[in-house]
Amino acid sequence: MAFDVTLRINDKVATIQLTGELDASTAGEFHATVGRAAGEGAVELVIRAEQLDYLSSAGLRSLVFARQKMGDEVRIAIVGASEPVARTIRLAGFDHSIDLVDA
Amino acid sequence: MSTQDIRERIDAFPTHRIGPYRVRAGRPFPYGATPVPGGVNFSVYSDGATTMSLVLFEKGATRPSAELEFPPEFRIGSVYAMTVFELDTENLEYGFRADGPFDPERGDRFDAGQVLSDPYARLISGREVWGREPDWDNVYHYRAQVLNDDFDWDGDRPLRIPAEDLVIYETHVRGFTRHTSSKVSAPGTYAGMREKIPYLRELGINCLELLPVFEFDELDNPRTDPVTGERLYNYWGYNTVSFFAPKAGYAATGPFGMQADEFKSLVKELHKAGIEVVLDVVFNHTAEGNEQGPTISFRGLDNATYYMLTPRGEYYNFSGTGNTVNCNHPVVRDFVLSCLRHWVAEYHIDGFRFDLAAILDRAPDGTPLPNPPLLEQLAYDPVLRHTKLIAEAWDAAGLYQVGNFPNYGRWSEWNGKYRDAVRRFVKGEPGLVGELATRMAGSPDLYQGRTSSASVNFITAHDGFTLADLVSYNDKHNEANGEDNNDGANDNNSWNCGEEGPSASAHVRELRMRQMKNLLTILLTSQGIPMILAGDEVGRTQLGNNNTYCQDNDLSWFDWELVKANADLLDFARALIAFRHAHPVLRSSDHPTGTDRVGSGYPDVSWHGVRAWAPDWAGHGRVLAMMRCGRHAKGGSVADDHVYVAVNAHWESHDLELPTLPDGQRWHLFADTGTAVHRLGGEPELEHPGRFHLGAHSSVVLVGRAAHRTTP
What's the ipTM? Predict the structure, then answer.
């Protein structure tokens, strides 16, 4: 599935919807979207990952980028990640800086 | 000019084109591959090469996608540096091809037919899954990759636990959780170990020492098990392939190239739990071995710089493994220093234990140096300033420096003499009372003028018998290693308690349990830094194999069923560790002198035998008691109780006369290896205040304090 990223901001809660594969070739687009959410002063970032088919190491690093870009005060939740994606996040230890939430 | 233009860096523009690649002259430092604006800076040293190329691969491809020869103007001194723009670093693997003379007698072994791994590679691919057979026809096995250092440390800071307060736990990343009984989500990995942090916390250790985690190749062992025919591994990993890269096969996320993050995450969580991390590092030799070994990196880049060579160009072998790293060559010193700084700065590592460290003080021709520049440099380095430096102060060529390793006030040593004396005393050899006292006091005979944390006290380590085997075997049983039982040490100072190996006799099993507790009691009440081998606290056995370097199986793995099966021993170990943490008098940094330096009316340490104040230093004595006066704790700066430890290595019980305490204080029983251990602070007062009946092959720990102190 082709990569797609959309941003919606509602009452300071930013929701990013990811579709397709997040890897080195698409991470830049995701970074730009995170930057827009940070610029809008979001206090919470929700990443909807139900339609995310694959997360490469560059994709995982994008989550680190999101953490650093949004700042420590902002809660980041990844919602609905598939088990392989969620497992990779957990094993690499990224679940300590972001919340993994079932859909 | 727009704002965007101002922000762009002028070094982000290529000046040259090599084929389709746009490049510019790079920066010589740092060595290795470093992401820079718009590209990657590659830098490599070779003094003798005639040409050098950067070899690029798409991830996993057998053939290179490009070879970029460094233009002459990209060489500064003997360093080749080039920035290559617009690379997809996630799908990139790289190496170098160095051409030059093949003239072994002059020390040169260049081979333009080889793609060489970057000695400074931060990440290695090619061995992402432990034990998986690679394509041996591949032209390039250990592939360097570019690493982004963007881990979120979340404010992690070094714990800086005073050395004398450490309790070290030596373990193996894979072996700790690989056994199915570990019940972790990713057995045998950094992530799996992270799940066992609660166990480590409860045990009470505050320093985890990991066997090698630098990338190595577990498949480089050609032997098989003589009975089963199964392949044997290089399980321990003392054959480094790449010194800056964490072992990918220890990471559940290795296949995704996330091993660095997974390992950092382990370190971060250990720190949160109050546990420091010490790495066992191997700078004495490499996986390239002697002239029969593979050319991986150093040999093809600058053989004569990196290895000690005889005047005829042959490899010196002070490590017993074929080659010896030329540690005091200025270029190699720089390499070692950069490597350790990398692990401290990027991975927040708290200290290092140096395998066969005596080699680090040999000159390029092999002679020991009185003032070895590498050791001095490590001791004073600004980045390593507060890290623990621990030497295995001997090498395989007979240089034995326990007690006189060049230390610059910083280095500790694995105290092999402590290990031998304690083992021999507890097995019942006569004539060791005096030496045991010296060892328990922090070995002032060896470390006069140094703090007592110069001595890392241990009874067992990965190399040798486990604690359970030390009391169950008279002889080693290494047949499974495929070397006709000729490998491994013969001087084990072990005693099987009457029967070789597993025993059906309740008496033998009970005696062995007591002996293990006796050994733990001495270890955890001695001055110096105690080190425990993982699994000894639950009686882990290797069935008499004292050299399991090649055994990637139940012989080496931590069997978590033992936590229940040997709960009594585990409780005892936990209690003793807690006791040590609770009693600073056992953890002073200065050696006791046997005198009263604080006006307490008692010497800081006193020695006793069956009679109080009358130690039996004579030839046949097998009873020793040590009393530490609490008023002397940490040089008299903190208050503590009196602590009395008696060990009876005799086969008969003895009625001990106890030293008298100050007015109003009474002796309380903390532990008797023959009966029970009590809760800290809840130790019962002795029925007979002046004496204690100590059983055969038993130890006792008493606390002297006010008689009616209430406890929470």
Answer: 0.85
